[in-house]
Amino acid sequence: MWLNKFKIALVQNDIKHLEELVSNLPKFDTIEEMQEASILIKQARDMLISLKNKTIHDINKMKKKIDFLKSSMHHKSDPKEKVSFDITS
Questions:
Q1: How far is the C-alpha of 20 from the C-alpha of 1, rounded, in Å?
Q2: Which of 12, 16, 18, 65 is most buried, most CB within 10 Å of its CB?
Q3: Is residue 55 situated within a structural domain?
Q4: Per the domain annotation, does 58 fall within a domain?
Q5: Could you report the per-residue pLDDT of 18-52, keeping only the tens digit for each?
Q6: In the chain, how many domains are there?
Q7: What is the pTM of this model?
Q8: Which of 8, 84, 74, 76 lies closest to 43 in space, CA to CA?
Q9: Would residue 73 count as lying in a domain?
């Protein structure tokens, strides 16, 4: 039962449920179940590392965009000129 719940949470990228399941590891009946749980937990760890790296990448991209926008606003030729970034087109 635990293994099936873990598989579902892993496929759904349900981090909160994965955390709950890892925190409440059952006593497995066979070595095969232990091995399967170990493999699934490693897959969950790899998924979390991947999500963490993607988040870091996305944050860095946003910082660069913010820096660009800030620098664009400070380098305008006429200080009274209003800067407008039309993001709808």
A1: 14
A2: 18
A3: no
A4: no
A5: 999 999 999 999 999 999 999 999 999 999 999 99
A6: 1
A7: 0.68
A8: 8
A9: no
Q: Which residue has the tokens 């999500």?
A: 51
The answer to whether position 87 is within a domain reads: no
Q: Is the dihedral of CA 39, 45, 47, 53 positive or negative?
A: negative
Q: Among candidates 16, 32, 36, 13, which has minimal Cα distance to 24?
A: 16
- For residue 86, how many other CB atoms are within 10 A of its CB? 5
Containing structural domain, residue 16: 1-46
Residue 77: what are its φ and ψ, rounded to 5°? -75, -40
Structure token digits, residue 78: 């006429």
Token digits of residue 13? 């990228």
Backbone angles phi, psi at 79, to 5 degrees: -60, -25
The answer to whether the CB of 6 falls within 8 A of the CB of 18 is yes
Q: How many CA atoms lie within 13 A of 12 on its CB side?
A: 11
